[in-house]
Write a structure and sequence with these properties.
It is a single chain. By secondary structure, this protein is an alpha/beta fold. It has one domain: P-loop containing nucleotide triphosphate hydrolases (Rossmann fold, 3-Layer(aba) Sandwich). Helices cover about 45% and strands about 10% of the residues. The protein has 10 helices and 5 strands, in the order H-E-H-E-H-H-E-H-H-E-H-H-H-E-H. It has a 5-stranded parallel beta sheet, sandwiched between helices.
Length: about 270
């Protein structure tokens, strides 16, 4: 495992891509089983900024249907949402039968950024930690498979990734004032993380930690864990055969395009 920015032991791209393809094939089989059996799954991704949540979620979802694998990444709550029960705005995105919902950050914002940055009171934070296991008991008893993943990135690796974002115009959008503020508060976030784990890692909804200093290994390990955790079998599908096309004699299908404007072919 690569640590503290050491790239010498990191997984090579070719090996990663080969292993990722194998796992993505299995995700497609999982998808068909979830649809067929009307399973309901929630996967939570939490972790520090730059821990690799977005890249891991992309690796999971890039070869499957967005109608089955739905990604939810909610913005800051509106004034109206601030008056609601805390988990209310998340619950409206919960899965129906045949869906897997991936939360890119979740109701655990209250245990992390809201608590550390002072967006909630100590009493609200304590109350959340107290009732969260009860809410998750209700979710699981409702027939939802609930998987909670924490991506754990080291201090030096997080700093390296922040510098990479600063220097790369394709990734600068990932840096917000909140990210920069949270970067300074490493120890505060560590304490909040530990309080969260102690209070909310229950038998019915345990936390699982993913070492993410090596992004490629982290992504593969996450997918492998999901495939082991969500029960599925490969379903037999009839082989698809393309039928002969019905071509209307005398009809020029390109005729209707004449006179239309095409985009400039620059490449």
């Amino acid at each position: 495992m690569a640590k503290n920015g050491d790239t010498s032991t990191r997984m090579k791209r070719k090996v990663y891509e080969e292993e990722l393809r194998k796992l993505q094939v299995q995700l497609c089989h999982l998808q068909e089983f979830v649809k067929e059996k009307k399973l309901k799954v929630i996967i939570l991704f939490e972790g520090r900024d730059a821990a690799g949540k977005g890249g891991t979620i992309k690796a999971i979802t890039e070869k499957v249907s967005p109608r089955v694998f739905r990604v939810v990444a909610l913005p800051a709550p509106s004034d109206r949402e601030k008056t609601q029960m805390f988990v209310q705005r998340y619950m409206q995105h919960f899965p129906a039968g045949g869906e897997i919902v991936i939360f890119d950050r979740s109701w655990y914002n209250r245990a992390g950024v809201e608590y550390v940055m002072g967006f909630c009171t100590d009493e609200e934070h304590d109350r959340f930690l107290e009732i969260c296991p009860q809410i998750e008991r209700y979710i699981v008893d409702g027939g939802i498979i609930l998987i909670k993943l924490w991506l754990e990135v080291g201090m030096e690796e997080q700093e390296r990734r922040f510098h990479a974002r600063i220097d790369d115009p394709l990734r600068q959008w990932k840096l917000s004032p909140m990210d920069l503020e949270s970067y300074k508060r490493w120890s505060d976030f560590s304490r909040a993380r530990d309080l969260m784990f102690k209070a909310t890692s229950s038998k019915h909804a345990p936390w699982r930690i993913v070492r993410s200093d090596d992004k490629r290994r982290a992504r593969l390990n996450c997918i492998a864990y999901l495939l082991d955790t969500i029960p599925y079998k490969r379903l037999r599908r009839d082989k698809v055969k393309l039928e002969d096309r019905v071509i209307k004699r005398g009809y020029d299908d390109q005729k209707g395009l004449r006179g239309m404007k095409f985009i400039e072919e620059r490449y």
